[in-house]
């Protein structure tokens, strides 16, 4: 199970809007100044991911929620998104190379095959989108921010 902590943005009628912040690399060490993965993450645009998840328990903005998704469904989704257009590109280029023998038609066939691969991946993704295997689940819910008090001596 792949797990990640997310912050609640809003909760309304049993649906929570969560914000997940991407982490670079493994995140298991403190060698950030010499870590290539951390440096590459700093170069890219700062992005955050939002997702909606059904949960019956009322949540407050700022509250932390641990969500998870199975590794198998994540790997199947990645294979669908990356391999389907790649296979289409290779097969389209090979087919047009056999049929027309020129490089221009081969390139056109590769682009056409990749486009058809993207369309196939999109169609399959829409079909499996509602299945429970591909939906994140709530694993843990932290206390609301107002419930945590720190006493200073």
From TrEMBL:
Keywords: Membrane, Transmembrane, Transmembrane helix. The chain crosses the membrane at residues 79-99, 105-125. InterPro entries: RseC, SigmaE_reg_RseC_MucC. NCBIfam families: PRK10862.1 (NF008115). PANTHER family: PROTEIN RSEC. This is SoxR reducing system protein RseC. It comes from Yersinia thracica. The gene is rseC.
């Amino acid at each position: 199970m792949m797990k990640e902590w997310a912050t609640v943005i809003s909760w309304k009628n049993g649906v929570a809007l969560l914000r997940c912040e991407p982490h670079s690399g493994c995140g298991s060490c403190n060698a950030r100044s010499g870590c290539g993965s951390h440096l590459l993450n700093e170069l890219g645009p700062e992005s955050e991911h939002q997702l909606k998840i059904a949960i019956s328990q009322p949540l407050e903005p700022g509250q932390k929620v641990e969500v998870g998704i199975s590794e198998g469904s994540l790997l199947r989704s990645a294979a669908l998104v990356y391999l389907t257009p790649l296979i289409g590109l290779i097969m389209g280029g090979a087919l047009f190379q056999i049929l027309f023998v020129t490089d221009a038609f081969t390139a056109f066939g590769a682009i056409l095959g990749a486009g058809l691969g993207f369309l196939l991946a999109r169609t399959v993704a829409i079909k499996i989108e509602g299945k429970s295997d591909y939906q994140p689940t709530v694993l843990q819910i932290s206390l609301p921010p107002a419930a945590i008090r720190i006493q200073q001596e």
